[in-house]
Amino acid sequence: MSELESIPLGDSVSTPSYKIIALRYEHTEQDFRCSQTELAKFLRDDAWKSEQLGLSRTFVLLIDGYAPVAGYYSLMMGRITTTDLPKGQVPTTLAQLPVAVLGKLARDERVPKEKKAGAILMVDALKRTLAVSTEIGCIGLMLDAKNEGLVRYYHDKFGLDVVGQTRYPRKMFVSMADLKASHEAGQSKSG
Amino acid sequence: MSAQIIARSRYSADPSSGPPRSEVAFSSPPLRLVPPLELVQVERTLPHSLDVDLRLDLVSFEELLSGLGRPAKVIPQLAAAFRDHTIRKP
């Protein structure tokens, strides 16, 4: 059984110093600092409400000795659609593609980059998406990259590709098939 | 208060001779018109978690759709990320 299969959704995954757990109300009351104020605001004001309504699921990274909440990410389900269907063409099932959406991912600015909080959160989000895709139809993971630096980061570190013709934020995508193949390759390399 | 809807037959032989024979009365759940301002207020109370725009232009959408059928490939940097940044159980 792979490690992914052995971790039930919602359970915490931890080492002595790193832990990723499902959001609790107390996390929203912590002093989370981020240069992008909307990401701090989301955790403080919206994440718990969104959790209760079932709109998204948020997971927080806790690292011993650093900020109360070292980082977090929020996942939700969505469907990719096109607004440019030829006139008169009725949308079909294939005009609405189910996808996991990484709505937010943020690191507290007091956590040193060397701790790789962002990469740890991203990998956890991707693994969680993989686990969900065995139960619910999902063609991949999509996110909005807010600037050029983030486009480079998500491509160079995780292989996401830009899709669509939009300016920033730019949509980035990785298919579930590639995600699964890459996960299996990563697992075999780690022995 | 429940609303009551009266349906009258359009084919009554003599409309002036009292209530039509086909008069039907039934109840429906209470209906309320919501003013636009109130809708906006409800929307504002929802968390801003759904702000990822998932609409694509047709060309990009079809590219994505056609990509679903191609064989899976290992993305080297993604495989490395899984290897290097997975939190292991103690």
Cα-atom radius of gyration of chain A? 17 Å
Topology of chain A as a string of helices (H) and strands (E): EEHHEEEHEHEEH
The helix tally of chain B amounts to 3
Tell me which protein chains meet in the greatest interface and how many residues each side has.
Answer: A-B, 72 and 41 residues
Residues in β-strands, percent of chain A: 25-35%
Could you report the average pLDDT of chain A, rounded to the nearest whole number?
87
Q: According to CATH, what is the topology of chain A?
A: Aminopeptidase
Contiguous low-pLDDT stretches of chain A (5 residues minimum) are 1-10
Give the overall silhouette of chain A.
Answer: globular
Q: How much helicity do the residues of chain B have?
A: 25-40%
The proportion of residues in beta strands of chain B is 5-15%
Radius of gyration of chain B: 30 Å
Biggest sheet character of chain B: 2 strands, antiparallel
